Amino acid sequence: MSLAIYRKKRDFKKIREPRGQVAGTRCRAPIFVVQKHRASHLHYDFRLEMNGVLKSWAVPKGPSMNPADKRLAISVEDHPLAYAKFHGTIPKGQYGAGKVEIWDKGAYRVVAGNLRRGELIVELKGKKLRGQFALLLRCTPCTTGAM
What is the mean pLDDT of residues 70-78? Predict the structure, then answer.
């Protein structure tokens, strides 16, 4: 995993966000964090510790405990593990400008699936989010150019 995209989007001389590095393997349950982010549009950032970084998704409508609810989760760049503790205000003019607060956090475990195969079921053990949640990744062909 790389944090190159994360670092490229930020001016660390002007912000308090952690620069971070890819972390080594730890002997504890991996963590998750959900950050409420009041940027240009209110959304929630869902992050799972995987392979030394936080795999991250922006969830515009926020999480739901109702199994019938489906939520769009847009994949964003990996973040350093230290970002799990980040809260505060990102200054105007900087990427992601706005208030960030920790909405929930805890440990998680993979119940089934694999992100590479496009489906991951995790059990979250947070204060607000407890239980099993599914991430279903659907790719559509890009029609606006190469990636």
Answer: 92
